[in-house]
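Thought: the user wants the 3D structure for the chain below. I'll pass the sequence to the structure tool as-is, report back what it returns, then summarize two notable features.
Action: structure_tool
Action Input:
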Amino acid sequence: MAQDDNTLRTLHRIPWFNELNPAAVEILAKIASISFLSAGEVLFREGDPENCLFVLVEGQVTLHTHVPGYGDVEIFTAEPLDVIGWSGLTPVVRQRTDTAIAVVPSMLICLKSELLRQFCEEDHESGYVFYRRIANVAASRLLTTRLHLFEIIRAHNERAQSPAASKSD
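Observation:
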């Protein structure tokens, strides 16, 4: 019971959940757990099964993705109150699309994806609030990823056009 109380107190510290009624937050506390990571510890790897939506409470976590023919690219640095693993709430994605690594010691709330989807379907009002927030997160991440892609293309073109790259042996 102490874990549920600690989880509930932590959920109340997250503005994300302020729009939900107290009973809904209590239900979320029952499907949530608190995780702690050391600096450099991997939260999950690209390709792992999708099992939790995480809210970063304290610390910093970077998300990396593998780009074929290019290598690993850091696509996002999560700060406190950022959501990690939101794609697990979509009906299609069932595996991780990134690798998440703690930059500094970090604390996260894990909401079990399957139970969270079920909660959102059963409690339509809370589900609407939750999915509206997830849509905002998704839109923001897509914009960030797009900007990173532009940076990669620009850097690639600059390397290809540099005099050192055009010299032949």
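Final Answer: Structure generated. The CA atoms of residues 119 and 155 lie 44 Å apart. Residues 34-166 form a domain with the Jelly Rolls fold (CATH 2.60.120.10).
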